[in-house]
Amino acid sequence: MTNRAQSSNIGLVLLLALTITGAGVVVAFGSSALADVQDQTSTDRAEHAMTMLDARTAVVGLGEGSVQTVRLGRGDGDYAVESESGWLRIDHANYTDGETEEIYNASLGSVTYRRGGTTVAYQGGGVWRQQAGGTSMVSPPEFHYRGTTLTLPVLRIRSTDAASGDTTATIRQSDELVRVFPNESDTYDATGEPYVNPVRNGTASVTVHSRYYEGWADYFRTRTTGNVSVDEDNRTATVVLETTDIVGSFPYPEKGGSVPVRGIAEGHSVTDFETSIKKDSGTFNNLYVSYYVEKGDRAYEAAVEVPSGIGNNYCDGDEPGSETLTMDVYYDDQSTSEGVHRWSNDSIPSDSGGVQLDCDDGDTVIRIDFTSSEQNLTYGESNVDEDTAIDWDERNESATEKPDPTKFAHEGDDGENTTYHYDDEQTLRILTRHYFAMFGQEFKLRVDHGPGDRGTTQIDTSGSGGVLRYDTIEGGSYITYLHVTENNVTVELD
Asked: Considering the entire predicted model, what is its pTM?
């Protein structure tokens, strides 16, 4: 009887112990879950408040209002305003002869909310959330890349402050808007040229140093197809955008030099290609000039030859003589069996038309409009006697005497879905637009000239040049227009 009573008491004690333990576990887990919910709720409120701060700061920073207020809300976290946290730098690399220009470099500042291991931050016109798993973007920064245009108003925080609990932020404009690029009053160090659009040569890069660099990098990857890199040690994210280079006028390069072509759209995208080449103190007799491209298996050259005897004295008389010029256009793709395409005209009047001679202060000038619809060439032969930049005979060793027919299969405004046979004609405009389309989004358009009777053909490069315009690709990793402003604000916490 006694044993049964003892057993009953022990069972009761164990039951009470299990009940108490279970209740404690439930309370412990419940408290932890409740704390997690409270943390999440507080963080969500902070994200919403920071997004409102983002919008109001843009209103003030971009000059649409002088003062704005935002109630950041009541929470257990801490708010802080910093003026020197993070920075943004813009570089223009290889804009000339390997030189790099630092266009802009300044701190960004930030407004942060911290609770436990989570931070919600406003920086650079965006809102970022950072916790153990890394950084994510809540709302995008002021970085707008459309087509080939980058618009970047740099929103900077220029004050420091701190608060906790129920907090209100007051945003005020600090100083006037600063125009960074374009800005004709600022110039490149090496060339003295002003900061103007279009941006030419090399690459433009934006680098952000920030606690939230991972979020910046993800944003760059999703909003551009530029080359994005991350430096973990220095906590930086960089996006590099190549310039579309020459869209407009260009100086005539030295012999063998090039006019870079970047970001050219597919198809017949060349709208205007003209050049003016002026005689210098040397001879223009037997002169030929050419533009040529070599890329992979493909090559192209357009050459004009001035016959012997008229290059030097063409402008000596009251009325220049009506002589004839010769022009050849060549193209070859060694990955095919077609051989070299040869187009020629050896009876071009020198005093008129898309290819002609002219006079400038008594010096002979060759003017070529490669997009002229008035100048025809005939398929099948070549007539330029001088050695051109590319050895076309060497590229054509296995070709027959008469070239095989060739088909231009492009569609579009030119309507040239046509097969050409020996002795067929086509305009210089169609040939230029067609062959340029064979080289992709970027290539180097080089210049050549020579040889003259004494091998001393001289061109006045300062008085020579050209115009090249073409449709550019949309998006991609290219940039043509850069618009950067510095927009300063202060944030006070109450």
From this structure: 0.69
- Compute the distance between CA of residue 461 and CA of residue 256 in angstroms, rounded to an integer: 13
pLDDT range class, residue 204, cuts 50, 70, 90:
very high
CA atoms within 13 A on the CB side of 316: 6
Lookup result for tokens 């690399």: 93
List strand residue ranges (DSSP E) for 225-354, in order: 227-231, 236-243, 248-251, 258-262, 270-278, 287-295, 298-305, 324-333, 341-349
Give the distance from CA 85 to its chain's centroid: 28
Contact 331, 438 (CB under 8 A): yes
Cα separation, 222 vs 105, in Å, equals: 24
Long-range CB contact pairs, 225-228, < 8 A, 24+: 225/475, 225/476, 225/477, 226/477, 227/477
- Residue 31 is inside which H or E element, if any? helix 2-61
**Separation between Cα atoms, residue 196 and residue 484, nearest integer Å:** 11
H helix and E strand count, the chain = 4, 35
50's tokens: 């920071």
Q: What is the pLDDT of residue 35?
A: 45
